[in-house]
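Folding problem:
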Amino acid sequence: MPPVTGDATRERIIDAAEECFGRFGVAKTTVEDIAAAAKLSRATVYRSITGGREELILAVVMRDLQRFLDGLAERLRRERSVPEAIVEGTMDAVAYVRNEPTVTHFLVPEAAGHMQAAVAGAAEHVLALCCEYVRPYFEQAQRQRTLRPDIEVEGTVEFLFRIITSLIVMDRDRDADGLRRFLRTYVVPVIAAP
């Protein structure tokens, strides 16, 4: 059997953490659980993941976010209009967080303390990753004059990020059509060119 590389070991540990968080919940998962699931020693886990549990939690969330953003970027390339891209991209993001078991485990009250420690200072990193994925779409829209010319791409992404976060945190029991109407009425006019 060939030796396991550092990156391969790290991925194996992150896979095991994701599995354990799904099975036991974030608060109840121990480094010992993760090591056992990865079939590695505890010492190997600590050497590979120097930030401990907080780094593992963030690594699982960031990897899932990257998977979602891969799909979102593809969708944005296919959308014909900026208003529909805003509405459907926002709908996708809200549905993703609400329905993705890995991410949902981090939003339950028992995980709140662990999540705060894990993501303290990481919001800028998450926002930068989101910007990296959607920047090309919004830059193209601005060149085509379908995005308001007086707004910055980074500010647009941050605004949408904040809208998505608030829609997830404060669910108003709108059905999908109601949420689409809300987005078309209040969010699209802020971003799309008239």
